[in-house]
Design brief:
Elements lengths: L23 E5 L4 E6 L1 H14 L16 H6 L5 H16 L5 E12 L2 E10 L2 E9 L1
Antiparallel strand pairs: 1-2, 3-4, 4-5
Length: about 140
């Protein structure tokens, strides 16, 4: 190694990990556009919805840790309502686990209409409780 290129440094102190700011672009997920900014609780609600509707392992811009397998669970030909109700809470919790702003996910409820599943749940976040409703088709 060329010593003239290497620049040594010292770590003076270890800093605790800080929560990243929540301010981000407002995504209108229903219309597919960006309009303004969101912060706090609304930013976390948006992050939850986006993580759930993004299929894991299928979007090249994300690593295999981002996204959710809910859509595959709901749209499988052999998926029963019982299977969806049993599998989806685990998939959602797994998708949201990396986000340190989300403390707990609970109180799942389901409604089914032909090939769609209406999923609702609550999440405790560092900004308070949010309710999420999503349609998976």
């Amino acid at each position: 190694m060329d010593e003239s290129v290497f620049i040594p440094f010292e770590i003076d102190e270890v800093q605790d990990a800080e929560e990243r700011p929540s301010k981000t672009y407002r995504l209108d997920l229903d219309k597919g556009r960006i309009a303004g900014f969101v912060d706090g609780q609304e930013a976390v609600r948006q992050a939850i919805r986006k993580a759930i509707i993004t299929p894991r392992f299928k979007c090249l811009i994300y690593d295999n840790q981002y996204g959710c397998e809910v859509e595959d669970a709901v749209t499988r030909n052999d998926a029963t309502q019982e299977y969806v109700e049993a599998a989806v809470p685990g998939f959602v919790r797994d998708a949201l686990k990396p986000d340190t702003r989300i403390l707990q996910v609970y109180d799942f409820s389901f409604e089914f209409d032909e090939d769609k599943a209406y999923i609702a749940f609550c999440a405790d976040t560092i900004f308070g409780k949010v309710s999420i409703e999503e349609v998976i088709a």
